[in-house]
Amino acid sequence: MTSSLKRAIGGAVVAAALLSPIHAAHAPQTDHKTLADAQRLFYNAHYEESAALAESLRASGGHDLANDEVRTTALLFVLRGLLKGQDAHNGEEKDKALKACSRCADVLKSFEADLHHGQEMARAILKTKPGDETALFFLGKLDLNYVWLNLGLLGKKTGWDEYWEARKSLDAVLKANPKHVRARVSRGWIDFIVNTRMPWGTRWVLGGGNKKKGLAAVREGAAMATDEFSHAEAEFALWDMLLRDKNVPEATEVARRIAQAFPENTEVAVFLKSRGTPAK
Fold this sequence. Notes:
Layout: H1 20-26, H2 35-43, H3 47-56, H4 58-61, H5 65-82, H6 91-100, H7 104-128, H8 133-153, H9 160-176, H10 181-197, H11 200-205, H12 211-223, H13 228-244, H14 248-261, H15 266-274
């Protein structure tokens, strides 16, 4: 793997790969639970519970691509919370924070195990079914999670291979199915990140990037008819992008919609309170 990107954003799971504090204190009962419950926990900002439930569901529901995607995404937000911050602007500072974090190494180990499992599974499917939409999407989304972890949260200059694989995979999904909301949102993030977080020279090497195009793609995705969680992903992405773009008034309106759908999300509630805006 090369290390040319600047800052922006296998096998079976090892027993107890998720850090023991999550298992001991946060793992919910799995009777009648599904991955949708893990997704709902995630969008209500219960990231540790979401990750724990996704793992525990593997005992009965199998270890598939959707499970890997939910769990790696939840673990990414667990790590963000442990590091007490958003995207890194100074990789050296994040290295110091990582070393001082007693739980971060275990979270990273769990993230990487599930990431590699999902990537390998998706690539294996695509060897026999090159146009498989599900495998293409999840490969692109898992790759994007890796990009977010290293280039965004940790400020590490890695992710070239995953970036290009994600871009190629998501473009293939959208070419075959322009109404795939999740692929549209993920692809929008790529355009937004490249344009806003990369210096001009690197931006050119990575195919340009276009903040307005990325934001428009996510806004369109949020307006499209789709399932509950695909819509939630689009809304959260739109909220995040608007805040990064310093469009606080529109971000506040999106946050109000999110709060009504996911009233337990304390992060959204804190934002709305800071704006003096009720959720309803």
